[in-house]
Amino acid sequence: MIEINNLTKIYKLSKKQMQEQKTKKNMKKAADHITLTAKPGQIYGLLGPNGAGKTTTLRCVATLLKPTEGDIKVCGFDTVKEGEKVRDNIAFLTNEIKLDPHFSAKYMFQFFGHLHGMNDAEINERREKLFKYFGITEFQDKKIEELSTGMKQKAAIAVSLVHDPKVVIFDEPTNGLDIVTARSVTDYLRVLRDEGKLVIISTHILSDAEKLCDNIGIIIKGKKVIEGTLQEILTKTNTKDLEDAFFELYKEYNMEEE
Ligand SMILES: Nc1ncnc2c1ncn2[C@@H]1O[C@H](COP(=O)(O)OP(=O)(O)OP(=O)(O)O)[C@@H](O)[C@H]1O
């Protein structure tokens, strides 16, 4: 279970960042009083345009950032006061995760398994299952640098899941992946959901949210502006598809003063 309670995250901007973001303010409120609950056996999608605050929110959930205000509980543990316990229960994935190119996927899997306190028998069982699913078994002894981009990505995902976490946090799961790799990743998120795990993703791809997510929270300018199943969102916005709903909300909330 993830319980985000009134999360606000404010970044202090450097002069360079102020220039880049074309603002005179030296603070940026990236998450603005976000409250949400995501439950096991569910894929929860944070949907929003670039810069909406999705990554910031997920990084706070994953204990990588400290909220400015509010608190977050993951499996009942506070992300600030009990960070280690939170980290035991999660995998945080992005498409930027890279494995050391000089080692094999098998070696990296074992290395991270040991870091999580697993024994060799447990690691081997997990590896057989995950490598089989992602089609890595045949290439498991090759150096990462010799693998294709898609295979590298799948190996990184398998390694992140070595400890069989209850909660999987995935920032932009299909970004930058070819269509075949993207499909195997989204299919695996469904497998995890069906195993009773909680999967929370961020995306700006409407079709991913539509097809994959049991619950969708739309974030615009750091605020959660609506939440529900696809059908609930369409009913609340009186629209026919998620794209129409999204643009209605975007028109309404993107105009708001900061
Ligand atoms: N470390 C940082 N320092 C200052 N500002 C930041 C920092 N990280 C993010 N921001 C700003 O906070 C806002 C939210 O960024 P965030 O990356 O959370 O959005 P996002 O919804 O994930 O967008 P994207 O899809 O582009 O990754 C943006 O305006 C961004 O420029």
From TrEMBL:
Keywords: ATP-binding, Nucleotide-binding, Transport
Origin: domain of life: Bacteria
Segment forming the signal sequence: none
A molecular function (GO) term: ATP hydrolysis activity
SMART domains with a match to the protein in the record: AAA
Record carries keyword Glycosyltransferase: no
Pfam families: ABC_tran
Domain ABC transporter span(s) in chain numbering: 2-246
Stated family: Belongs to the ABC transporter superfamily.
Protein name: Sodium transport system ATP-binding protein
Origin species: Anaerosporobacter mobilis DSM 15930
